[in-house]
């Protein structure tokens, strides 16, 4: 990487910069406090590749500015570089730009602009953008509620394995009476250790919804969730 980066290859510059960042994180994890020199070299490489228009480096440079890694923390610079990357159709950058807009980093909070970037990223297949867009449509955050579109995007994210999206799709199913379909999804997630799903599946067994009523099975799933600090499960067990 060093030889290729020294010859000005942007992909190598970007990857070497990320390697330096990882080495710094590993040094910090071992109690050494990290090596600021590694972060300085990382930022310099990212700046070289980003200035030449390399979208991945622009995204990673934006992250460096957002976190103050090798550069002074600067949200305005972070959003500037993230926007340049997103405008080149870098899908994670589009999602992260949506996050910046929603949080008001580098400028005023702008939910309309956030939605625009989430949608661009979601349409390109990025699962976290699909989930976030679905939840904003489900809850009416910065946009009129739209259950149909919300379900569509949540199912897209769920289809790519996003557990939160699956849980919310199951909730939508349950709310419209498709309790067996909901319980099947919660069973899948609960088996993998997801506490919200364990609680929901437990309550299905308590109420006989989507599963035959079985208080022993209900107790087992609720205990699993409660053991992970799930307050609603602990409350259900005490009732």
Alpha carbon gap, first and last residue:
61 Å
Question: How many helices does DSSP assign?
Answer: 14
Q: Label the structural class.
A: mainly alpha
Helix content: over 70%
Residue runs with pLDDT of under 50 for 5 or more positions: none
Characterize the overall form: elongated
Count of individual beta strands:
0
Largest sheet: none
Q: Roughly how many Å is the radius of gyration?
A: 22 Å
Order of helices and strands: HHHHHHHHHHHHHH
Percent of residues in beta strands?
under 5%
Kindly summarize this structure in a few lines.
This protein has 239 residues and is mainly alpha-helical. The chain has helices at 2-6, 10-29, 36-51, 55-67, 75-86, 91-103, 111-123, 127-139, 147-159, 163-175, 179-191, 195-207, 215-227, 231-238.
Write the layout of secondary structure elements.
Blueprint: H1 2-6, H2 10-29, H3 36-51, H4 55-67, H5 75-86, H6 91-103, H7 111-123, H8 127-139, H9 147-159, H10 163-175, H11 179-191, H12 195-207, H13 215-227, H14 231-238
Helix pairs in contact: 2-3, 3-4, 4-5, 5-6, 6-7, 7-8, 8-9, 9-10, 10-11, 11-12, 12-13, 13-14
Explain what this protein looks like in three dimensions.
The protein is mainly α. The chain is 74% helix and 0% strand. The longest helix is centred in the first third of the chain and has 20 residues, at 10-29. The mean pLDDT is 94.
